[in-house]
């Protein structure tokens, strides 16, 4: 039977790593006492569902823009949806490519795409759709990308400190514009701020075990 050197547990079955702490197991494997249950939720299926959902959301937003063009007030939200979906995917793909500077990339992405839209808004007579919708959607979708990344891709514990700071920054940016009175409607900025609090709480609780394990290992050495 395989053993975990950290938890001092015997593990039955073909486990390469400890199911509790993910430390490599030692010793000979024993037959699993559990029946083989097919996985109902695979990573590939998650990505396929996300892809189809993204395409559907973008398609519907363009269709809605076509139908409700007369309503100038809410067009900003619809106009920004594809940008948000693209931003989420860029964050996930850059993280999956194991780039070290994901946080820097997210800041550049939000600044560049937001800046382009602010200029576009300015050119078309400034009704503040860029600051009201684009900036909160970009920040919120980067937060979603960050959440997917932390869930799907294992990353070094040290990165969590950086991502925690980034989460605060992404939540605060739309709130600053809101406080300055530069936005048309408060709801998108407020929602983004609330989302960053949720992500912050998730980041601090989700990998808490890994952080403790990391600290314990280092202190043991
Ligand atoms: Zn263990």
Keywords:
membrane, binds zinc ion, mainly alpha, 221 residues, 2 strands, elongated
Question: What does this entry show, briefly?
Answer:
The protein contains seven helices and two strands; from the N terminus they run ββααααααα. By secondary structure, the protein is mainly α.
Which helices and strands occur, and which strands form pairs?
Blueprint lengths: L1 E3 L4 E3 L31 H25 L7 H22 L5 H22 L5 H24 L6 H21 L7 H20 L1 H13 L1
Helix pairs in contact: 1-2, 2-3, 2-4, 3-4, 4-5, 4-6, 5-6
The chain binds zinc ion (ZN).
Zinc ion binds next to loops.
What does this structure look like?
- It contains seven helices and two strands; from the N terminus they run ββααααααα.
- The chain is mainly α and 221 residues long.
- The chain is elongated, with a radius of gyration of 22 Å.
- The longest helix is centred in the first third of the chain and has 25 residues.
- It folds into three domains: 37 residues, no CATH class; 84 residues; 93 residues.
- A two-stranded antiparallel ribbon has the order 1-2.
- Helix 3 runs antiparallel to helix 4 and helix 4 runs antiparallel to helix 5.
- It binds zinc ion.
- The site of zinc ion has 7 residues, from loops.
């Amino acid at each position: 039977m395989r053993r975990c050197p950290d938890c001092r547990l015997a593990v039955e079955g073909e486990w390469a790593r400890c199911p509790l702490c993910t430390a490599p197991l030692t010793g000979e494997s024993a037959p699993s006492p559990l029946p083989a249950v097919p996985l109902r939720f695979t990573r590939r299926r998650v990505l396929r569902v996300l892809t189809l959902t993204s395409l559907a959301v973008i398609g519907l937003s363009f269709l809605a823009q076509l139908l409700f063009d007369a309503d100038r007030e809410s067009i900003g939200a619809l106009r920004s949806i594809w940008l948000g979906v693209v931003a989420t995917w860029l964050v996930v793909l850059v993280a999956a490519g194991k780039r070290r500077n994901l946080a820097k990339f997210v800041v550049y992405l939000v600044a560049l795409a937001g800046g382009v839209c602010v200029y576009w808004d300015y050119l078309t007579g400034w009704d503040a759709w860029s600051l009201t919708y684009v900036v909160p959607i970009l920040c919120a979708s980067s937060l979603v990308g960050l959440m997917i990344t932390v869930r799907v891709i294992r990353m070094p514990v040290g990165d969590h400190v950086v991502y925690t700071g980034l989460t605060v920054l992404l939540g605060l940016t739309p709130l600053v514009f809101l406080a300055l009175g530069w936005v048309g409607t408060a709801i998108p900025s407020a929602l983004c701020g609330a989302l960053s609090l949720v992500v912050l709480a998730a980041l601090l609780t989700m990998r808490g075990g890994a952080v403790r394990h990391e600290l314990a290992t280092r202190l043991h050495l």
